[in-house]
TrEMBL record:
Gene Ontology MF terms in the entry: glycosyltransferase activity
Keyword Metal-binding: no
SUPFAM superfamilies named in the record: PRTase-like
Gene3D superfamilies (UniProt xref): 3.40.50.2020, Glutamine Phosphoribosylpyrophosphate, subunit 1, domain 1
Species of provenance: human gut metagenome
Protein name stated in the entry: Amidophosphoribosyltransferase
Assigned keywords, A-Z: Glutamine amidotransferase, Glycosyltransferase, Transferase
Length: 104
């Protein structure tokens, strides 16, 4: 089981999956501890070009195939809210997940 905070472009994840399989892993299940990043971030993260974001143009199955993982699972937005339950959902920024750039 490989756990990462996000998949942005997919290149790093593919390299890590390949390394694990070359080291003898029979299967690699990748779990991502955030929802899929489908929109550019205008608030400080280096994701300015949406077409570079793999989840903006590919399904989860296509991303799984691209990185050559056996399984791929993203945390849902609802799951993220439950994971940080001490923070009100309205106080969280989901812009890179849902494209809503409104600021409270």
């Amino acid at each position: 089981v490989l756990i990462d905070d996000s998949i942005v472009r997919g290149t790093t994840s593919g390299i890590i999956v390949k390394m694990l399989k070359e080291a003898g892993a029979k299967e690699v299940y990748m779990c991502v501890s955030s929802p899929s990043i489908e929109y550019s971030c205008h608030y400080g993260i280096d994701t300015s070009v949406r077409k570079e974001l793999i989840a903006a143009t590919h399904t989860v199955d296509e991303i799984r195939d691209f990185i050559k993982a056996d399984k791929l699972h993203y945390l849902s937005r609802e799951g993220l809210c439950r994971a940080v339950s001490d923070v009100k959902p309205d106080d969280l920024c989901f812009a890179c997940f849902n494209g809503d750039y409104s600021v409270a």
